[in-house]
Amino acid sequence: MTRQATIRYLYHLATAATKVEETRFKIEEIRLKAEEEAKAVEEGWKMEEERRMNERIALEGEMRLKKERWLVEEQM
């Protein structure tokens, strides 16, 4: 292999290595973004679940009050 061919080959290898590193970096960025999005979705689910629980607690409280009022009315 001539000196010039060797230089071209090494340049090609360096370029390929750079592209591999760029691709790895992009993959890592995509992975981190996906993790952030997954956390946001999970947080949304938790907030929705908490909202439902609060609604359920409020409804149970209302039903308890209605039952107590009914019992008081029945006793009168």
Account of the protein in words:
With 76 residues, the chain is an all-alpha fold. Helices cover 96% and strands 0% of the residues. It has one helix at 3-75. The mean pLDDT is 95.
The stretches of 5 or more residues where confidence is low (pLDDT under 50) are none
Q: What kind of sheet is the major sheet? A: none
- Helix/strand class: mainly alpha
Helix tally equals: 1
**Residues in helices, as a percent range:** over 70%
Q: Indicate the mean pLDDT.
A: 95
What's the end-to-end separation, in Å? 109 Å
Please trace the helix and strand order, writing H or E for each element. H
What value does the Rg take, in angstroms? 33 Å
**Beta-strand residue fraction:** under 5%
How many individual β-strands? 0
Chain oligomer state: single chain
Q: What gross morphology would you assign?
A: rod-shaped
How are the secondary structure elements laid out?
Elements: H1 3-75
From the structure above, extract its key features.
single chain; 76 residues; mainly alpha; 96% helix
Summarize the structure.
The chain is mainly alpha-helical. Helix content is 96%, strand content 0%.
